[in-house]
Design goal:
Layout: E1 26-29, E2 33-39, E3 43-50, E4 54-62, E5 65-74, E6 78-85, E7 92-98, E8 103-108
Antiparallel strand pairs: 1-2, 2-3, 3-6, 4-5, 4-7, 7-8
């Protein structure tokens, strides 16, 4: 977007910055977690970086069907990753849920 600031006017926004080094191909983030998904012909690797200690469930979908599910626990802040040996071809998606089952993130073709 473009904006012209007149004399005496102001413009404000907020951003959250944190390092995501070490999780791979960064694809999505909010203020609590960054997600990476790295796909090859032989595997799919999912990585997380959390800004606080988290106990999460990460679900990988292929063709909108669950292919893998992991419990992910991180320190504050911390990284986590897991790989799935690709047994199916097709579009992938990932959901991240908290222990209560609330969806924190949905990426790609996840139901």
């Amino acid at each position: 977007e473009n904006a012209t600031l007149q004399p005496g006017s102001s413009f404000a926004w907020s951003e959250n910055w944190y390092p995501v080094h070490g999780i791979g191909n960064f694809v999505w983030a909010n203020k609590d977690v960054a997600l990476s998904v790295n796909e090859t012909s032989g595997s799919v690797t999912v990585g997380l970086y959390t800004t606080s200690a988290q106990s999460l469930t990460v679900t990988l979908f292929v063709n909108a069907q669950q292919a893998a599910r992991w419990d992910a626990a991180t320190a504050a802040p911390g990284t986590w990753s897991a790989s799935w040996p690709r047994a199916l071809s097709g579009p992938t998606g990932v959901t991240i849920t908290d222990r209560a089952g609330n969806i924190i993130a949905r990426y790609g073709q996840a139901p």
